């Protein structure tokens, strides 16, 4: 009999998980406020409800054998109640609560001697004396995503944009490059790290513009990054799939920036690049299957397709021209509405000969705007 897996959230991460799950003896069902969202456009089993609502999560979870997430904004008290009723929850509610609050996340790094940038937690008021010289970073403790809820103060004039909410201040890192590692940890305690990726961020929207997998870093740094990512996940003491984002500093040190308790934008190249994608890994973790050694089928670049122009009904231009390029794979997220800065899809290029040239070609070829 098929295992019924309930996923809280119905966005593009859930959509890609559903696409992979068709190869497994499972039934995937989703709880989402928008039944016509990315999952709803390809999956008939989307339940309308709020993942943050206690009763909605409880009723949904009771119809499942196991519950997991594709977003952090979920009701963890309901998940704890489901656990008490014998329903497995992956990742654990404790892990979700620790990670989704950037303040708790930082304290957890400190507790387990995981290298991270110096920080200070603050309430909402602007302090009279700042703990760091400019430039420094302010991050909202909760609610930030895709570059939102993060700002860098370089001058006193920048302080006009102060977040008057609980947040943390962080010393600005002198970054050589930013990398991310996807880690899967099974209920049986087996952990594996996928090859790291090297990320380049959009200067306007402060989210990933494109990434390279594997990175161009020295092999010693690559192995160090994977071991650090596994250390982060094992300290959480929870099964699940996690994305660990890091800074490689100019002085050669690796420090952890943030962790996500789910599949992640930084792992999308794994679909074509690796012998095991992050979504396949997520399913194997949920089913407590063996986690194999992973090989690189081909080096890859992943480019995010971000909405531009005006907001409105999504319109794609350049798909035919993109399709003419060799070793290029387009992933559409099924979002009906486009707006500037919204992730609408991604493009993966295998065996790129000239990375920067290929990125420019993709960005200049395909456009998503509102009409």
Present the secondary structure layout:
Blueprint lengths: L2 E6 L3 H10 L4 E7 L13 E3 L5 H8 L4 E4 L6 H9 L3 E2 L3 H8 L1 H10 L7 E4 L13 E5 L9 E4 L13 E5 L3 E11 L5 E3 L3 E5 L6 E6 L5 H18 L3 E10 L4 E7 L9 H4 L4 H9 L13 E7 L5 E6 L1 H5 L4 E5 L4 E2 L4 E8 L4 H11 L1 E4 L1
Helix pairs in contact: 1-8, 2-3, 3-4, 4-5
Largest sheet: 9 strands, antiparallel
- Number of alpha- plus pi-helical segments: 10
Instruction: Please give the CATH architecture of the largest domain.
Output: 2-Layer Sandwich
* Rg value: 20 Å
The secondary-structure class comes to alpha+beta
CATH top level class name of the largest domain: Alpha Beta
Taken together, the total number of domains comes to: 4
- Low-confidence parts: none
Question: What do these coordinates show?
Answer:
The protein has 371 residues and is an alpha+beta fold. The protein folds into four domains: 3-89, Rossmann fold (3-Layer(aba) Sandwich); 118-171; 173-297, D-amino Acid Aminotransferase, Chain A, domain 1, CATH 3.30.470; 302-371, no CATH class. It is built from ten helices and 21 strands. The chain has helices at 12-21, 54-61, 76-84, 93-100, 102-111, 219-236, 270-273, 278-286, 319-323, 355-365, and strands spanning 3-8, 26-32, 46-48, 66-69, 88-89, 119-122, 136-140, 150-153, 167-171, 175-185, 191-193, 197-201, 208-213, 240-249, 254-260, 300-306, 312-317, 328-332, 337-338, 343-350, 367-370. The longest helix is centred in the middle third of the chain and has 18 residues, at 219-236. The radius of gyration is 20 Å and the shape is globular. The relative contact order is 0.12.
């Amino acid at each position: 009999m098929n295992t019924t897996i309930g996923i809280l959230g119905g966005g593009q991460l859930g959509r890609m998980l559903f696409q992979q799950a068709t190869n497994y003896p499972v039934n995937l069902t989703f709880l989402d406020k928008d039944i016509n969202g990315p999952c709803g456009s390809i999956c008939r089993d989307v339940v309308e409800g709020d993942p943050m609502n206690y009763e909605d999560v409880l009723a949904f979870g009771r119809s499942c054998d196991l519950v997991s997430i594709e977003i952090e904004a979920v009701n963890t008290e309901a998940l704890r109640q489901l656990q008490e009723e014998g329903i497995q929850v992956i990742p654990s509610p404790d892990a979700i609560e620790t990670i989704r609050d950037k303040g708790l996340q930082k304290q957890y790094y400190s507790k387990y001697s995981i290298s991270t940038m110096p920080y200070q937690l603050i309430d909402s008021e602007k302090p009279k004396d700042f703990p760091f010289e400019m430039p420094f970073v302010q991050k909202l403790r909760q609610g930030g995503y895709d570059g939102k809820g993060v700002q860098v103060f370089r001058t006193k004039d920048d302080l006009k944009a102060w977040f008057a909410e609980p947040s943390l201040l962080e010393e600005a890192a002198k970054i050589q490059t930013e990398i991310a590692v996807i880690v899967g940890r099974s209920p049986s305690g087996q952990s594996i790290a996928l090859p790291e990726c090297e990320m380049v961020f959009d200067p306007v929207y402060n989210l990933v513009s494109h990434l390279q997998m594997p990175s161009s870093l020295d092999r010693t740094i690559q192995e160090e990054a994977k071991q650090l990512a596994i250390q982060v996940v094992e300290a959480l003491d929870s099964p699940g799939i996690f994305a660990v984002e890091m800074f490689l500093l100019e002085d050669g040190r690796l420090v952890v920036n943030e962790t996500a308790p789910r599949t992640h934008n930084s792992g999308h190249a794994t679909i074509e690049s690796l012998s095991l994608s992050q979504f396949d890994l997520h399913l194997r973790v949920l089913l407590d299957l063996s986690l194999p050694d992973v090989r690189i089928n081909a080096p890859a670049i992943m480019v995010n397709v971000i909405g531009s122009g005006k907001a409105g009904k999504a319109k794609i231009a350049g798909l035919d021209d993109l399709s003419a390029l060799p070793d290029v794979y387009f992933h559409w997220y099924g979002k009906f509405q486009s707006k500037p800065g919204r992730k609408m899809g991604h493009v993966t290029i295998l065996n790129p000969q000239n990375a920067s040239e290929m990125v420019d070609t993709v960005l200049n070829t395909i456009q998503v705007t509102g009409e």
